[in-house]
């Protein structure tokens, strides 16, 4: 009998002995295995049949948009081997020419405008998120490091003539994220905003002498400004109502106006959703350009020829592209696009075409091109789905379930996407996995989800993907419903979903699992803390186990940003709330099997958050699996690691969720 088999048998046996004896057994049998870059505890040997069955789902891949090159080709990011790299596609359904070949994945990709012939990409080491910006020259195929090799650098933005590059960096003191500008001819850099806090560049003026910038405080609080690049003067713009979420600042091509997205008050009335707006500083003229759209908008882009702009509305999780002619702001008729999530959209250098990245529930991200004069839609990439029959993929339905509180006298409802296996025999009750997003200000959308497809098609498991309170996309009020001391109200939304599951005849309320990453990992632990009698098992990936230790140990450049969302642990009243809701301090309540996975280099949620909750929950005598990768950070990005974790997670579901009743 192998050592791995012995350990797995011991772990499974814990459920059959007393808590005190189980604790002693867990301590005696615990062996930490270190295989290459992988550390594991109590993870059993993975069945070859499962690995083979899962392999095709793990070989699906998508293509994200990096922009247009000067000659009219598309830059895309996709993975052919171990990591996501830069590729070029020069015609519809043409060859994807791989341009970069790094061990580490690229985290960003930005095409340069003419007359430059190349692009900037970001890359870190082992997931530590200290990204360095590099220049790739398409003519020579040479790569050059642009940043200092030590600080964190991101959000690159070119001037319209390609002579300058603005980006955000921690180079000044390692804590604040300033805006820097580089002269691309000399490679000389200077900090143009060093006010403290978190800043990013939005757009250069057409003449390259001014730069629009934004200070980010939280998802509901940002401050726009303008930097004179000759004098260094920073002018902050007034924010109507004093506090608002403002983004996507862009100059008009004549430099006389700015376009931006904002949820500032209008006519003295608070706004739930962010709308597209235009303002002329000289004349004071102001317009709201998306007033008829009762949803958030974003992804603003202007054509270089000044004839069109585009933006995307997020309508109940589905992206809708809008194109306006300039200067009359008349909406153009567009060809029908696949229904899904729009990940990016960019005008071609001549302004005649738009490249759009679209991800649907049954297809990974691919690039389509719209020809504006003919309104013709052309598909440029077709990403692989592992040789699977895409016709068998499950399309989720959008459901809304009632939760514990009320709005205008009626129960508040929570939106969720429901992946239901096809061909369910009559009388069958399906196990369920609840997947909870991170952020917490993120939003789950109906994108291609290989795990959901495998669970539905191969294991007969339903998946529910809720957008609990605090999620983006449903208005400013909804976004703030889980802030600070209201944190556990979002956990109650999971309790309400358990009630909904119990009322569905096709779902098995006795076999429910929870899965989530980052803040979603906290939600997994908190859900197990409150509902271990109703949840069969949980998988926590890079999750927060105690807000006080998390805020003390997260990287310094993130600390104040997270305090704005979660609360300040230095304030005694808030510290008391954290102590009360902490999964670590309530670990004795977690009585369901737990799988914790982590990246050793995670700068956001340090690996100590994982190790401390694993140790604490093991004291309850329940099976606890632990997995950590030495070459990953906040989530897993290398294919070998994601494949192993995926197979381990499916094994966990088979043992602790699907099998038995």
From TrEMBL:
The keyword Hydrolase applies. It comes from Lysobacter antibioticus. This is Dienelactone hydrolase family protein. GO terms for biological process: proteolysis. GO terms for molecular function: serine-type endopeptidase activity. Keywords: Hydrolase, Protease, Serine protease, Signal. Gene3D superfamilies: alpha/beta hydrolase, TolB, C-terminal domain. PANTHER family: DIPEPTIDYL PEPTIDASE FAMILY MEMBER 6, SERINE PEPTIDASE S9 FAMILY MEMBER. InterPro entries: 6-blade_b-propeller_TolB-like, AB_hydrolase_fold, Peptidase_S9_cat, Peptidase_S9A, WD40. Residues 448-657 form the Peptidase S9 prolyl oligopeptidase catalytic domain. Residues 1-22 form the signal peptide. Pfam families: PD40 (PF07676), Peptidase_S9 (PF00326).
């Amino acid at each position: 009998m192998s050592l791995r088999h012995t350990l797995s048998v011991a772990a499974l046996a814990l459920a059959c002995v007393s808590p005190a004896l189980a604790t002693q057994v867990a301590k005696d049998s615990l062996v930490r295995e270190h295989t290459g870059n992988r550390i594991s505890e109590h993870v059993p040997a993975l069945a070859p049949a499962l690995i083979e069955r899962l392999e095709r789902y793990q070989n699906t891949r998508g293509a994200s948009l990096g922009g247009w090159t000067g000659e009219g080709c598309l830059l895309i990011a996709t993975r052919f081997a171990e990591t996501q790299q830069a590729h070029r596609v020069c015609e519809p359904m043409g060859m994807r020419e791989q341009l970069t070949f790094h061990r580490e994945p690229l985290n960003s990709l930005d095409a340069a405008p003419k007359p430059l012939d190349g692009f900037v990409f970001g890359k870190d080491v082992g997931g530590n998120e200290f990204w360095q910006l590099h220049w790739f020259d398409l003519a020579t195929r040479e790569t050059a490091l642009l940043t200092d090799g030590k600080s964190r650098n991101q959000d690159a933005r070119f001037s319209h003539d390609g002579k300058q590059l603005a980006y955000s960096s921690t180079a000044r003191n390692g804590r604040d994220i300033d805006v820097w500008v580089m002269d691309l001819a000399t490679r000389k850099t200077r900090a143009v905003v060093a006010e403290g806090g978190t800043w990013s560049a939005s757009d250069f003026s057409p003449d390259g002498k001014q730069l629009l910038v934004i200070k980010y405080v939280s998802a509901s609080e940002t401050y726009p400004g303008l930097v004179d690049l000759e004098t260094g003067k920073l002018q902050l713009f007034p924010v109507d109502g004093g506090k608002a979420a403002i983004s996507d600042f862009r100059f008009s091509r004549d430099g006389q106006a700015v376009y931006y997205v904002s949820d500032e008050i209008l006519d003295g009335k608070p706004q739930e959703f962010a709308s597209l707006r235009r303002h002329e500083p000289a004349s004071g003229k102001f317009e709201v350009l998306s007033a008829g759209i009762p949803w958030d908008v974003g992804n603003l882009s202007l054509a270089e020829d000044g004839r069109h702009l585009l933006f995307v509305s997020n309508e109940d999780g589905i992206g809708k592209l809008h194109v306006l002619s300039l200067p009359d702001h008349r909406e153009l008729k567009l060809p029908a696009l696949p229904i899904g999530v729009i990940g990016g959209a960019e005008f071609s250098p001549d302004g005649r075409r738009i490249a759009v990245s679209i991800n649907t529930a049954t297809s990974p991200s691919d690039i389509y091109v719209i020809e504006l004069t003919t309104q013709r839609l052309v598909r440029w990439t077709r990403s692989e789905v592992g040789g699977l029959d895409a016709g068998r993929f499950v399309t989720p339905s959008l459901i809304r379930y009632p939760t514990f509180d009320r709005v205008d006298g009626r129960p508040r409802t929570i939106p969720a996407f429901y992946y239901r296996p096809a061909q369910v025999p009559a009388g069958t009750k399906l196990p369920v996995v609840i997947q909870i997003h991170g952020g917490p200000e993120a939003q789950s959308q109906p994108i291609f989800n290989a795990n959901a497809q495998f669970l539905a098609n191969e294991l007969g498991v339903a998946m529910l993907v809720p957008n609990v309170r605090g999620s983006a996309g449903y208005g400013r009020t909804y976004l703030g419903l889980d802030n600070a001391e209201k944190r556990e109200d979002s956990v109650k939304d999971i309790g309400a979903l358990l009630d909904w599951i119990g009322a569905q005849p096709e779902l098995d309320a006795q076999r429910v699992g929870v899965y989530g990453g980052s803040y979603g990992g906290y939600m997994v632990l908190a859900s197990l803390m409150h509902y271990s009698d109703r949840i069969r098992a949980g998988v926590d990936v890079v999750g927060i186990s105690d807000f006080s230790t998390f805020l003390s140990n997260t990287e310094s450049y993130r600390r104040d940003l997270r305090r704005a969302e979660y609360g300040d642990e230095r304030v005694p009243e808030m510290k008391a709330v954290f102590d009360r809701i902490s999964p670590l301090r309530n670990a004795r309540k977690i009585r369901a099997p737990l799988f914790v996975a982590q990246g050793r280099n995670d700068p956001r949620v340090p690996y100590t958050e994982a190790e401390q909750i694993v140790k604490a929950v093991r004291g309850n005598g329940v099976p606890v699996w632990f997995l950590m990768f030495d070459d990953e950070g906040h989530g897993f990005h290398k294919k070998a690691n994601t494949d192993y974790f995926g197979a381990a997670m499916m094994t966990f579901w088979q043992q602790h969720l699907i099998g038995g009743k």
